[in-house]
Amino acid sequence: MSRRIHLALHPYGVGGPGQHGLWKDPLVAKNASIDVNYYIEQAKAAEHALFDALFVVDSQFINSTYPSHYLNRLEPLTLLSAVATHTKHLGLVGTASSTYNSPFNLARRFASLDHISAGRAGWNVVTSFDTGTSRNYGLDEHLDYTTRYGRALESVQVAQGLWDSYEDDAFPADVERGVFLDPSRLHALDHAGEHFKVAGPLNISRSPQGQPVIFQAGVSEEGRDLAARVAEGIYAPGGTLESAQEYYADIKKRTAAYGRDPEHIKVFIHGGPIVGATDEEARRREREIFEEDNDFASNLALLGRSFGAYDFSVHDLDAPFPDVAHLAEKGGRTGAGKIIERAKAEGLTLRQVAESVNAFRRSPFVGAPETVADTIEKWYDAGTLDGINLAFRNNDDLGRFVDGVVPLLQKRGLFRTEYEADTLRGNLGLPVPENRHTVARRSVND
Amino acid sequence: MSRRIHLALHPYGVGGPGQHGLWKDPLVAKNASIDVNYYIEQAKAAEHALFDALFVVDSQFINSTYPSHYLNRLEPLTLLSAVATHTKHLGLVGTASSTYNSPFNLARRFASLDHISAGRAGWNVVTSFDTGTSRNYGLDEHLDYTTRYGRALESVQVAQGLWDSYEDDAFPADVERGVFLDPSRLHALDHAGEHFKVAGPLNISRSPQGQPVIFQAGVSEEGRDLAARVAEGIYAPGGTLESAQEYYADIKKRTAAYGRDPEHIKVFIHGGPIVGATDEEARRREREIFEEDNDFASNLALLGRSFGAYDFSVHDLDAPFPDVAHLAEKGGRTGAGKIIERAKAEGLTLRQVAESVNAFRRSPFVGAPETVADTIEKWYDAGTLDGINLAFRNNDDLGRFVDGVVPLLQKRGLFRTEYEADTLRGNLGLPVPENRHTVARRSVND
User: CA B46, CA A272: separation in Å to the nearest integer?
Assistant: First the structure.
């Protein structure tokens, strides 16, 4: 295997969790998160730098304490369709919830994006973190963790089944014979599972990459299992080198255990590189950013998000972390459970917990270009990542990485010098899944 | 009032109901219906001709007997987002079913399109004609007619409520005061109705046109009532001059009865103009098209679509029209009821009924440019239309209308010579709805 790192760009807009101060940055337009031209420019910059994909996250619940980018943002599929016609190679990965969408609708929209982009669509499957989302979809209670992950798996399986509705030779469009469709190449799905009944067929054919690429972001037991079963890309948390190694090895092992080639699941860790002319300058920029973002009220709200948008401000800040175990259990959010455990183990007050929630976003990739390239190489060689999902505060930060670090990675043979393909699968080195009905017919004929 | 006709373009792709032969036309690309560039070119041509909007229809159920365009087409919202960034004035009206979508999801996607297009989005609300759609969404039975129309009305009301989540001054983004959002300008909806419970708020702000424009295509009693209540545009069937007059007058009267300005609902009739150098040449082209489309098996399948994709080929073609009343009642499809009535009244065989299903698409606008302009003017003055939803077989047909008829309409003062506005509302002469919360606060302050 050649050593090769994949890079995706995760546009922050005016700032998500842990980037409370980003909207104040004079280099960030105040309407970035709803400005299609912001995304088109980000995508063009990413494509110019030969990145694999644009990665668009999402959520569907807000209240006024939520991060700026969450309050007012474009819906990922409409956004990525608009970006598609302004790019040619860049993958377009959009987040959509399997908890509050029908698989037929999802399958159709991603297939449509895959055609519009000529084979560059990816679906980042999420189960909706915010418990309040349920109330936007007619349910008083958020679906529980097990149900959500069961739905996620079945959603992907249904979507993949629907994406095979037409075999690749379904449309001869033969004027002489008067045959547009060959009906023997059209297949209903007739799925009846635990969560969904979907007859099909889908009303759209396969695109050049056969099927959109499945991404996932699983950390919990259920999340890792889902990823190992169906994901072809993962947005992983990163964390420390050791925790990233553990995660990476675990995912690859689980994937192999499901009979899949572990090379066919690409682990992207979150990375917000901060590049300076010198290590010291980069450290200074890191401190500046930390200052900008270190807003206590926002941190308290961010903490609350892990407990179902709970308002922690009703508690005494300097008393021990309150008993909110009942909020953590609902929906099985593992993050909330971990916060409680740590608060108990270390005897932290509410204030101390709130002050620490932002720390997890700290990037290992800080320094002069040579330092950052060294660190990336070290992490790659340590078996922590196949790719990095890069997030930058502004275009200057993006530029310093692209101009400073990317050429070093290229020189070391760690990053491409030209696109390998026009599809996301092609650039990620993922196989094009053959249509299941074509395979079945061939095996009958053999 | 100045006399002013609005024009929309309804792209046929490779051919929908009644255009069975269109895919064979050498001027139509075999992949038109899934080629984003086909739509971008159609949109650019429409914008060059100063049309009001691109109008994209939709459906979500197929089998192998369905029209070519239905079998394999892009999803409207992703399609229109891609088109948005290649146009500046053209309205972008997309069809989406209120029967098999959540209003939160719909509100969000159309709001996103409205931002991406800077105020040119329209939602054509449909309730899903094909009974088989239900089986793609987990239901064994199609929701009945009354339920579907009840959902449609409530969906629009919920979406409009969600679109007012933010007042126009909700985001001061004031760096000095450190205020991105003014929380007093953010409003949850807390809707609990017969069909939906939706808490809100929506996570996207209003666009330049305040809210996307609501289109509808109601012919039945329920459809007309829905249109009169909430529609700002209608895709009307047209038919004869007399039936169009009846429909137009009825819609305007019903709209006024709901306390709305009848000028604020624009009736577009379907029109597939056929323009030739002479009347005779146009008639010849009309006959050619009829020949191309007159495929008996396709007509039989098209007939079956009105009865839940029923396979009429199991019946004797030359026996009296079979008793399929039980299929017509299911879901209350009025079209099916009318077919049965007529077959009975006129004593038609199945073959005769199948041969006649295509006739309803016959356009009144056939002839030399002067003749077509005269007919349009006559229909306009007779009170049948505010606009025409134009569909053309291919770009030559489109070109003959744009180059031949449009200048005549302009000369007569019936069509614009430049866009009045950059938004769909602006060009249609529809008011921008003021945010309900802004209105409420002002009335409290008065």
Answer: 44
CB contact at 8 A, B34 and A208: no
pLDDT higher than threshold 80 for residue A402? yes
Concatenating the DSSP letter of every residue in B196-235 gives -EE----SS---TTSSPEEEE---SHHHHHHHHHH-SEEE
Tokens 């660190």, located at residue: A375
- Is the ipTM higher than 0.90? The answer is yes
**Rounded distance, CA A62 to CA A309, Å?**
9
* Radius of gyration of chain B, Cα coordinates, nearest whole angstrom: 22
| Residues counted in chain B | 446
Positive/negative CA dihedral, A338, A344, A347, A351? positive
Angle at A378 between CA A22 and CA A397, to 5 degrees: 20
Q: How big is chain A by its Cα radius of gyration, in Å? A: 22
Which residue in chain A is spatially nearest to B33 when comparing CA positions? Answer: A204
Please, are residues B33 and B58 in contact by the beta-carbon 8 Å criterion? Answer: no
Which chain A residues are within 8 Å of B23, Cβ to Cβ?
173, 180
pLDDT of residue A378 exceeding 90, the answer is yes
Beta bridge partners of B348: none
A316, containing H or E segment? none
The token pair that represents A202 in the structure block: 């889908």
Instruction: From A2, A71, A381, A60, select the one nearest B183 (Cα to Cα).
Output: A71
Question: Which chain B residue has the Cα nearest residue A59?
Answer: B203
Token pair for B64: 């192998």
From chain A, pick out residues whose CB is under 8 angstroms from the CB of B203: 59-62, 70-73
Distance from CA of A279 to the nearest CA of B (A): 29
Cβ of B203 within 8 Å of Cβ of A34? The answer is no
> 3-state DSSP call for residue B46?
helix
Cβ of A85 and B205 within 8 Å?
Answer: no
Alpha carbon of A181 to those of A166, A429, B14, B30, B43: distances in Å? 10, 32, 12, 11, 27
| Bridging pattern class, strands A121-126 and A213-216 | parallel
* Local structure of B288: helix, strand or coil: helix
Q: Do B72 and A135 touch (CB under 8 A)?
A: no
- Provide the CATH number for the domain formed by B6-280+361-442 in this structure: 3.20.20.30
Chain region(s) in chain A for CATH 3.20.20.30: 6-280+361-442
Judged by average pLDDT, the poorest of A226-235, A390-399, B248-257, B340-349 is B340-349
3-class secondary structure, A127: coil
Residue A149 has pLDDT above 70, yes or no: yes
Torsion, CA A127, CA A132, CA A134, CA A136, rounded to 10? -120
Mutate to test the interface with A, among B115, B141, B174 (most CBs of A within 10 A): B115
Nearest to B271 by CA among B181, B390, B185, B189: B390
Cβ atoms of A404 and A392 within 8 Å: the answer is no
Are the beta carbons of B62 and A201 separated by less than 8 Å? yes
Distance in angstroms (rounded) separating the CA atoms of residues B120 and B109: 13
> Which residue type sits at B286?
E
* Residue segments in chain B with a per-residue pLDDT below the cut of 70: 1, 329-334, 359-361
Distance CA(B98)–CA(B146), nearest Å, equals 13
H-helix or E-strand spanning residue A322: none
Distance in angstroms (rounded) separating the CA atoms of residues B180 and A24: 9
A137 and B36 within 8 Å at the Cβ level: the answer is no
